[in-house]
Design brief:
The protein is α/β, with parallel strands linked by helices. The chain has five domains: 11-91 and 224-292, Rossmann fold; 112-209, no CATH class; 310-377 and 543-655, Rossmann fold (3-Layer(aba) Sandwich), CATH 3.40.50.300; 379-539; 674-988, no CATH class. Helices cover 46% and strands 14% of the residues. It is built from 38 helices and 30 strands. Strands 10-17-9-18-19-8-20 form a seven-stranded parallel beta sheet, with helices on both faces. Strands 22-23-24-25-27 form a five-stranded mixed beta sheet, sandwiched between helices. The chain has a four-stranded parallel beta sheet with strand order 3-2-6-7. A hairpin with a 4-residue loop joins strand 23 and strand 24. It is elongated, with a radius of gyration of 39 Å. Mean pLDDT is 85; it is low at 1-26 and 226-231.
Length: 990
């Protein structure tokens, strides 16, 4: 397999203009034509120019094209982005979002004298930050905007610089507001509204004192700065603005000031199709730009509706299916271009960044060099998933007298994480095994602190500072381990993980510094929400050689660039263009009236990016996901609909579909082999006590032969998990164990009414017995206290106490009796005969309670589930097509085992003449006519097992003969209802 040159690295900035060669393609893009014009007209004088681009990527390609125009070294002009130029002018550095939100909070507290916490402020503070940024970018008079206008006549005087239409929109808002019915709501809004201007002013003053700013503030400062207050404008002969579209009012003002001094040149990238059509949103800003700032030179502007252009819209009913299709389309391009394409002229554009990894895995071998100009979303990385698991771990930690304890599921998720599994698999898996075996719902720090790394992970964080320091420490240690493994196993083995952890560590270091500098602390839950917001905007940087190979790009990175072949994925409404609805504290009418950004602006920007990208392409493939889901409506982008219905375009359409055939699963049949027979023979008494057949195993065979095969032949055990809530199985164990503990001191002693009365009176003793049962059969510890029983388990405890009390009351009615055994294992040899064979089988089972009373030996089985004493007859117990009565069957098997025990129980010698199988079913315990006897057809109680023994044992012999002495294959049950609770249902695909 050929190796693709994909590198995780910081962004690369090129500052040297290399010498190129004069081999040129006949088809030139916008940047090539611009470079050619400037070189032809100004030549070596370009060193006195500052060339300004909307992004760094366009500048890199421009340098390449400029270098190709000369065969001797050139002095390069200065290259800047407009944002960078504004920062140079003002001397202000763009602050990170966390610093901004903290500074805004301090400013707010200065004017709002309340005890409002940062937790309460954060979420609407974020909204306010975006509003302030927009106010500055659009040069809005903040004092007027945040004024509370009660007298509408004042609008003409106060806002005389606005147009009549703007005044009208503003008047409508305040008119409706003043007519509102909710006085309290109006009062609250007005109080905060009039506070916003002082907060805005103070906020900017605080930032400026630290030489910081946000985008809008830096832009506004750049165009309003006075001499001496900031560094002067860098002295270049000309400023050349290339490839811009939507300008803020600050940017427009700045360009206008340079234009007046004859220091600006403008090169606009557009097509006449959308420029001259005033209804077309793609030309919304370009029409104004050309009128205000006439272009230095006009290039080819008639390319968008070229009839030779191939435009194909393809629907794919899958997210990742789009990526797979794109890989196939690249191979088609490769074949079409003579197997020697210039992949630098091919771009795959991903409006949805989450498709980056599926796209990388779908690239064909021909794409040997790949330049990724977009970052991978941090929230899709393993480092982010580790953060989420650590956050959950900290949020559910509990404090006990002996220290902190962590919820088992959170602990397991951390231990299962790929980072932890890669550096300490043995320790992590041993801990997971320990938690499951001991059913640890909450695990103590002492049990988790097995090494230094685990000690760092499993400690409690009390607040945001602790948590940020905690994440920093974990990221540092993981980075060290990953780097160590990279040195041992080869540099590129885990480079992706290394960059993820570097990104995580850098972000947490910055966040921790901001917390310390601003002396801010907050609840850990709020802090995690803040971190998620911050991480959502973070990218893990990819890059390769930027001027070579296939270009994988986000939509914004395509600005000013041209390609021959373009493949755009995720052309779905809501993805591209993105939903432009943003929360704002400024009502829509006021935004509209004061000229702030509205959703229409965002839509027009997206339209320009789309049409500009495809205007010079010869081949355009537009792919969208036609399958509706939580993240996607399955609706194609409005831009695709426009291409289809506008007559100027010739569009091909193709639908990719997946053929889904829902066939009935092939029946699974396991024939008996020599290996199978050897395993079955282990149950024969002649081979010793190697395997013991239990009543539940026989029940399993009746339900489904294949289920018996999986469990008892193949040995496929059910998955073990921690039971953080008590289910029916554990509930039954607790009841059995408690009754065993209560009655154990009285085995082989006569239990009278007085005996049970003393037991009932000892409430503390009953409770201690139950707590001991919790300790041994649920928590797997030595002792349990009342504080350990929490949540729903408190309810379970009370229910169990009621059942135990009721059983004692019912036993009092049956007294006197003598208990012979409790939870005792009974091992017997059961003879089995067929026509050709005879064998003795090892059978074993635990009988909950065996006692005797009134000349009767009673087999008592406690049942807490949905058990039934009633059954329609012995044959039905063996009918595998019906839903069997497991409880009755199991109790009768116990009776058969007692009857067949060796030596036989000498019932007649002790005066016992009955063997009575009984079920203590909890749901029947409180019945006024409680009767534990089995019941045939609800009319005939089984008073003595010997009454049904012959019929039962005949059927049992037939069944066991089939199981162990025949060649009957192991097949699936025909009763699908039984599959619902089968642990092997996924194997059978039912």
């Amino acid at each position: 397999m050929l190796k693709k040159s994909i590198i995780f690295a910081p962004d690369i900035s090129y500052s040297i203009l290399s010498v190129g060669i004069k081999n040129r393609k006949s088809k030139m893009g916008f940047l090539e034509q611009t470079a050619s014009y400037l070189h032809r007209v100004y030549g070596d004088d370009l060193q006195r120019f500052c060339i300004v681009f909307p992004n760094i990527r366009a500048g890199l390609f421009f340098k390449k094209y400029l270098a190709q125009l000369s065969d001797k070294p050139l002095w390069a002009p200065a290259f800047r982005t407009l944002d960078k130029l504004f920062q140079e002018i003002t001397g202000l550095t763009k602050a990170d979002d966390l610093t901004l939100i903290f500074e805004l909070f301090q400013s707010y507290k200065q004017h709002k004298q309340t005890g409002e916490s940062f937790d309460d402020f954060y979420f609407w503070g974020e909204m306010l930050l975006e509003d302030f940024d927009d106010v500055d970018k659009q040069l809005v008079n903040a004092r007027d905007l945040f004024r509370n206008v009660s007298d509408l006549k004042e609008i003409d005087r106060l806002f005389d610089y606005l147009t009549d239409e703007q005044k009208k929109i503003i008047s409508l808002f305040w008119q409706d507001f003043n007519k509102g019915d909710s006085v309290s709501l109006k009062t609250e809004f007005a109080a905060i509204w009039t506070l916003l201007f002082p907060v805005y002013e103070t906020f900017k003053q605080r930032l400026k004192a630290k030489s910081l700013g946000y985008d809008g503030m830096i832009q506004r400062e750049a165009v309003t700065v006075k001499t001496g207050r900031a560094p002067s404008l860098p002295q270049y002969e000309k400023y050349v603005f290339i490839g811009f579209n939507a300008l803020t009012k600050c940017e427009t003002f700045f360009l206008k000031s340079l234009q007046k001094k004859n220091k600006a040149m403008f090169f606009w990238d557009y097509d006449n199709y959308y420029l001259n059509a005033h209804w077309h949103e793609a030309g919304t800003f370009m029409r104004d730009n050309i009128q205000r700032f006439p272009p230095e030179w006009t290039f080819d502007t008639e390319k968008l509706v070229d009839k030779s252009k191939n435009i194909e819209i393809i629907s794919v009913p899958s997210e990742t299916g789009q990526a797979r299709l794109s890989g196939q389309l690249l191979e088609d391009i490769y074949a079409h271009d003579g197997h020697n394409p210039d992949l630098t002229r091919t771009a795959i554009v991903l409006p949805d960044e989450h498709l980056l990894l599926p796209m990388l895995s779908s690239l064909p071998e021909l794409a040997r060099e790949i330049n990724i100009t977009m970052g991978y979303p941090f929230i899709s990385s393993s480092a982010y998933s580790l953060f989420e698991r650590l956050a959950s771990l900290q949020m559910r930690v509990r404090i006990y007298a002996d220290g902190e304890r962590f919820f088992h599921n959170d602990v397991a998720l951390v231990l299962y994480h790929p980072y932890i599994q890669s550096i300490m698999p043995d320790e992590a898996n041993a801990l997971i095994k320990f938690i499951i075996e001991h059913n640890r719902i909450y695990v103590s720090t002492a049990e988790l602190s097995k090494n230094e790394m685990l000690q760092v992970i499993f400690k409690r964080c009390a607040n945001a500072r602790d948590f940020s320091k905690y994440l920093l420490e974990i990221a540092t240690k993981l980075s060290q381990d990953v780097r160590r493994e990279m040195q041992d196993a080869g540099r590129e083995t885990r480079e992706a993980e290394n960059w993820q952890l570097k990104t995580f560590h850098a972000a947490m270091q910055r966040i921790y510094d901001v917390l310390i500098i601003n002396n801010i602390d907050m609840d850990i839950h709020v802090f995690c929400r803040l971190l998620r917001k911050n991480f959502a905007s973070m990218k893990i940087p990819f890059s390769g050689e930027p001027l070579r190979g296939l270009q994988l790009m986000g939509m914004l990175e395509t600005r000013a660039l041209d390609f021959d072949h373009v493949i755009i994925l995720s052309m779905n409404e809501g993805v591209f263009p993105k939903s432009s609805v943003k929360q704002s504290f400024i009502p829509y009418n006021l935004r509209k009236g004061f000229g702030l950004t509205t959703s229409e602006r965002h839509d027009a920007i997206s339209a320009y990016h789309f049409y500009r990208l495809i205007q010079r392409c010869s081949d355009v493939r537009l792919i969208y996901n036609s399958a509706a889901s939580d993240r996607n409506t399955g609706e194609m982008s409005r831009f695709l609909s426009q291409l289809i219905y506008e007559r100027a375009f010739s569009v091909k359409r193709r639908n990719i579909t997946f053929s889904v055939n829902i066939d009935r699963s092939t029946p699974i049949v396991k024939e008996r082999t020599n290996e199978t027979r050897k395993i079955l023979e282990m149950y024969h008494a002649e081979t010793g006590d190697i395997k013991q057949l239990s009543p539940s195993a026989i029940n399993s065979y009746i339900d489904c032969r294949l289920r018996f095969y999986f469990r008892y032949i193949d040995g496929l055990k059910e998955k073990e998990e921690v039971a953080d809530e008590i289910d029916h199985s554990i509930f039954g164990k607790l009841l059995h164990k408690t009754m065993e503990i209560i009655y154990s001191p009285h085995i082989e002693k006569e239990i009278t009414v007085a005996t049970i009365a003393r037991l009932q009176k000892d409430k503390k003793g009953i409770q201690n017995a139950l707590y001991r049962a919790f300790a041994e059969d649920y928590f797997n510890v030595k002792n349990v206290t009342e504080s350990d029983i929490t949540g729903r388990n408190i309810i379970i405890r009370e229910v169990l106490l009621k059942y135990i009390t009721r059983i004692l009351e019912l036993d009092k009615r049956a007294a006197p009796f003598t208990i012979l055994s409790l939870e005792k294992r009974l091992n017997v040899k059961i003879p089995v005969r067929s026509e050709n064979h005879t064998a003795n089988l090892n059978m074993s089972g635990y009988i909950d309670r065996l006692d005797h009373a009134h000349n009767t030996l009673r087999i008592i089985d406690y049942k807490t589930g949905n058990a039934q004493r009633n059954f329609s007859g012995i044959p039905d117990l063996f009918d595998r097509n019906k839903t069997g009565n497991h409880s009755v069957f199991q109790t009768l098997v116990y009776a058969c085992m007692i009857k067949s025990s060796s030596p036989p129980l000498p019932l007649y010698l002790k005066g016992w003449n009955k063997l009575l199988p009984c079920l203590y079913i909890t749901k029947d315990l409180f019945s006024n006519n409680f009767d534990p006897r089995l019941n045939i057809s609800k009319q005939s109680p089984v008073d003595d097992y010997f009454d049904v023994a012959h019929e039962f044992e005949t059927h049992l012999n037939q069944l066991l003969s089939e199981m162990f002495l025949s060649d009957t294959p192991f097949t699936q049950t025909e009763n699908i209802k039984k599959c619902r609770t089968c642990p092997y249902v996924d194997i059978c695909n039912r």
